[in-house]
Fold:
Amino acid sequence: MGLPSRPRPVYYAPPPRASTFNPSLRLPPLQIQSPPLAGDSARYVSPLDVAMSRGTDSQVGVGAMIMSIPYLNKIETLCRICPALQVPHPGSPRTETRGALIAIEGPRPEMLRMVAGAVERMLSGSEDIVLKKWGDDDSSPRAEEAGMANRGSSWRFKPHAEASRYCMSYFGRMTRWHERSNEIIQHITTQPGPMPDDATAGGRSRSTTWLAETLASTSNTRVPVALVTTGFSLTWSDKFACAMPIIDSYAPVDHWTWVATFWRGIVGPDLFIYVKPSSEEDIRKFGNIEVKSNGIMVVRIDERREMDEMTERRLVFETVEWVRGGTYKTSF
Structure:
């Protein structure tokens, strides 16, 4: 009798399940876009081009954020980047004297011209001050950029041309200021010749005569003063930082700081005269002239009016007192 046969395994098929596949979740075939070849009519758009094409509105927002940074904080940063003239290093040529550098700063060119004109008239009216002024054209960065764009049509077809034009315009301006810095240092460290014995007040206005008599009564030596009339490190850092598009991950404050660092190596002002457009309420609250510190003076002018005579006389008085005080000579 043979062995019993092994029972066959029984397989149970699972009951059919309802399909849960959703056709709407099917992914489309993977497509890789590549830049068109030369001759294609379509133009490849990079993320940087997209960011720059948003230009106007976003740049206005960036400019507003930059101008919301307190000007005193900006001046403090600039004083670290480009400090006032320091004591010469040991072994350096000995300086003959130490004059002063005064910079008129502010966001409104027409107000800068008013204040600079008043300061220049008064300081140039004194025989014991040898005044020399430096300035720059007050054209806006956008006007400069447009001028560069007109030099050749090829500019319009280069990638990121807008950012490049602003940078080149700013670099050119900074090159000129590096050259002027040497001229300013030469002026304020050179002892002027003696005051003429036959100096008279003929042809001067009443206010300039008053200034000459005031200074002559307290000083027997002539002081070289350099005056920058159309804005200096603060004014131009603000203008170009607001105009240059941010096409990377820089925050507005970092963007402004980067623009400001190009002033490194240029002599800084001994006195900042910051011209601030103000409301009548702010002028009543803080006054037309406010001396913030030994090296910062704020001039508040009504946005809807020109500088009045009282403000001008107070401005001149405070500036004269600062020159007479000679605090800029303490390190020499």
About this structure: The beta strands are 100-105, 129-134, 223-228, 271-278, 289-293, 296-302. The longest strand covers residues 271-278. The chain is about 40% helix and 10% strand.
